[in-house]
Amino acid sequence: MKSQLKTIGLAGVAVFMAASLIVYPDQALEASIRGLNMWWEIVFPSLLPFFITAELLIGFGVVRFIGVLCEPIMRPIFKVPGVGSFVWVMGMASGYPSGAKLTARLREEKQLTKIEAERLVSFTNASNPLFIFGAVSIGFFHNPTLGLLLAVSHYVGNAIVGVIMRFYGGHEISTYRHERSLFSLRRAFEAMHETRLKDDRPFGRLFGDAVLSSIQTLLVVGGFIIIFSVLSKLLFLVGITEVLGAFLAILFGMAGLSGELSLPFISGLFEITLGSQMTSTSHATLQEQVMIVSFILGFNGFSIQAQVASILAETDIRFLPYFIARILHGVIASTLSFFFFQPLYVERQAFHQHETPVLNQTPLLTFEHWFHWIVQIGPLVTIGALAVGAWLLIYNRSNRNKPLS
Description:
Strand content: under 5%
Protein name: Sporulation protein
Transmembrane segments: 7-24, 44-69, 120-141, 147-168, 206-228, 234-254, 290-312, 319-341, 370-395
InterPro entries: Gate_dom, Spore_IM_YlbJ
Pfam families: Gate
Helix content: over 70%
Number of strands: 0
Organism: Pontibacillus halophilus JSM 076056 = DSM 19796
Oligomer: single chain
Largest sheet: none
Order of helices and strands: HHHHHHHHHHHHHHHHH
Shape: globular
Radius of gyration: 22 Å
Number of domains: 1
Number of helices: 17
Distance between the termini: 58 Å
C-alpha cells in the first residue's frame, strides 16, 4: 500500500508539472532561463576549480595526510575521522553541494564508515563567504555590515549541528582502522605516500578524470537548479504558494514575526537565492529579515537538498540525517542571528559611522568585486570547461576502442 501511494504521489507531481508547463509556457521559460543563468554565471565557474582540486588532493594522498594530522581534533569533537576536516573546510570555502560530493568520494575510498559519512555530510554543506557577503549582504540588502552577522550565525550554527550529530548512530563499532590520537607528521607523510602509490594512474589520466567527474556532477547540479526554479514559479502561478503563505502568516504572527515574510520564506524553502532576495525587499524589520535569511541559508532549500540527494544516491549514505540536520541548522542559525544582532550589527554599525567610508567597507567590497567578476567571466569559463569535457570524453572513448597492438 505504501509503495502504491508513493507511485501515485510521484505520478501526480509529474502530471502537475506537465500540465503547468502547458498552461504557463512563457513563465516557465522565463524561470528556466533564470535558473540557467544562475548556473552558468555563478555556480559552475565558482565550484569547478574546487571540485577538480579536491579530486587531485584525494588522488595524491594530501587528504589522507590532513586526515592523520586532524584526527585528534575531529574525532573527539565531531566523532568523524580527521579527513572530515578537509571536507568541512572545502565545504565552507566552495559552498553547496561540495560537502556531499567530497563525503561521497571519501566513502567510496573507504575512509569513512556509513555512520561517519552521514554525520559528516550533515554539517559540511554550507554557503560560501562569497555568496553571503557578495550576493546577500551587498547585492540584496545593500548593507556590507550585515555580512559578518550572517556569516557568524551560519558557520557557528553549522559547527553546533556537527557537535549535535556526533551523537547520531550511538556507539558505532567501526570495522575501519582509526588513526592514533597522537599528532605525528611522520605518520601523516607515510599515509600520504601510501595512498599515492595505491592510485597508479599517471598525472594526465588523474587530471582528466578529475575534470570529467567534476563537470558531470555540475551538469546534474545545473539540472536541479533549473527544474526547481521552474517548479517554484509554477507553484506561485497556480496559487499554492499563496495558500501556504496565508497559513504561514498566521504562524509567523503568533511567533511575533511579520506576516509579509511568509511568501519569501516559502520561496526560500525551494531556492535560497530567490528567497533571500524576496526577504530583503519585504517591509519587515531588518532583524526579522536577517532571522529568515539565516534560516533559509541553513536549510539549504529543496533545490540544493535534491542535488545532495542525487549525489548520495550513488552511495549507501542515507539522506534523512542530512535533512534533519538542515532543519536544525536553520533553527540554530536563525536563533543565533537574533542574539548576535545587537553586538555584531547594531554596535558595529554605530562604531563604523565614526570611520571613513573607505576604511569601513574596503574588505567587504572585495567580496562584491569578486562576485561581479565571476558573473562577468562565468559564461566563458562554463563554455570552455564544457568544451574540454566533451573533448576528454571523445578522447577516452576513442582510446578505449583502439585495438590492442
